[in-house]
Design goal:
By secondary structure, this protein is α+β, with helices and mostly antiparallel strands. The chain has a single domain, classed as Alpha-Beta Complex (Peptide Deformylase). The chain is built from four helices and nine strands; from the N terminus they run ββαβββββββααα. The chain has a five-stranded antiparallel β-sheet with strand order 3-4-5-8-9, with helices on both faces. The protein is globular and about 55 Å long. It is an enzyme of class 3 (hydrolase).
Length: about 210
């Protein structure tokens, strides 16, 4: 196994792990991101945060790095930051709060739908769409890295981030919440991502065979 990386490769649309319902986990678990050695949940979460910042994201769920567990990280910035890969300004300098949530349970507290924000996804790079319906306010109950049970309420953009990341833990993409023709409009780009996802999985399998020799 390779040593723990500074950042993880982000799994792309078409990778089966992104469609699986993730399993609960404990802060004391040992996790193994495919292709790397065992790490503590805290180590994985810290690397996920670094991965998210480097990719200029606002959130990242464990399935997006190949782990089918109910864990996501997110950040709140000084100004609402939509997924914008490839920008120049350092995101970490604008972070107000970082979040690491284990086994999050999301409850809607304002059912009115908000469609005003553009939404993107680090596993579907380069594709952004407006009109994704999200509840305006939610509460999230979760376990933190110290094993403490916590709860937070969020509205507007941060509520959208929490809903997006919770969706990932259930195998749902934001495109799934839009009419099918939207996905069809991006068919060529998504097919390219599926090919990249398959190639990466093949490379992991080949590396595993080499280690087994």
């Amino acid at each position: 196994m390779a040593e723990a990386p500074r950042v993880y490769p982000i799994r792309l649309y078409g990778d089966p792990v992104l469609r699986r319902k993730a399993r609960p986990l404990s802060p004391t678990d040992t996790l193994t991101v495919p292709g790397y050695g065992p790490q503590s949940v805290r180590e994985v979460a810290n690397t996920m945060l670094e991965t998210m910042f480097e990719a200029r994201g606002v959130g990242l769920a464990a399935p997006q790095v190949g782990l089918p567990v109910r864990l996501f990280v997110a950040a709140e910035y000084e100004d609402d930051e939509e997924e914008q890969e490839g920008g120049d300004a350092p995101l970490k300098s604008r972070v107000l709060r970082e979040f690491v949530m284990l086994n999050p349970v999301l409850t809607v507290i304002d059912k009115k739908k908000d469609r005003s924000y553009q939404e993107g996804c680090l596993s579907i790079p380069g594709i952004y769409e407006e009109g994704v319906p999200r509840a305006r306010a939610v509460q999230v109950r979760y376990t933190d890295l110290d094993g403490q049970e916590r709860a937070i309420e969020a509205d507007d953009y941060l509520a959208r981030v929490f809903q997006h990341e919770t969706d990932h833990l259930d195998g749902v993409f934001f495109l799934d919440r839009l009419p099918p023709e939207v996905t069809e409009d991006h068919r060529k780009a998504l097919a390219g991502m599926q090919r990249q996802a398959k190639a990466y999985l093949n490379s992991l399998a080949e590396a595993g065979k080499e280690r087994a020799k």
